[in-house]
Amino acid sequence: MRILLILFGVILFISCGEPKTSYPDLDLMKHGLPIKIQAPIDAEVEMNDMLLMKDVTVKKDGYYLQIFSSDAMINDISKIKQEKLNEVKSKSSFGKIIQDDANGFIFEKMRSDSTINYDFRHIRLQGDKQYIFQTGLIGKFTEQEVRNMYQSVQ
Prior knowledge:
globular
C-alpha cells in the first residue's frame, strides 16, 4: 500500500508540471536556421537575411514568433539573458517579470493604448550562433499566447 501511495505521489507531481504545447515540430533549416521549434500547422515562415543577422518570423492565429540569429559574441547564456533582461527593463513600457528561467523570461508591458501586453525572450546557443526568440514586433498577446510561444521554443 505504501508503495502505491509513493507511486501515486510521483505521478501526481510529474503531471502537475507546466503543460507542453501541442504544436507539431517545425524544422527551420530550409529557412536558414538549423533549429527546430514547435509551431501551428501551416504557420507562415518568412526569413530576412540582414548580413550580420537573420530575422525569421513564424506566424499563425495568436502565434507570432520572431527569431534573431547571429554570431555569438559570448558563449554564456546567463550573460546574454542578463543583457536582454536589462534591455527590456530599461524601456518605459516594462511592467514586471512573470516567469524567469535559466534561458529566458516572460514579462508584462504596457502598450501605448494603456492595455497590458506580454512578451518574452528565450536564448539558445548552438555552435557559434546565438538565437534570440521573442514575440513578433507587431501585435497584442495574452499571457497564455506568450506562454505557448515560449514553451514552443524550449
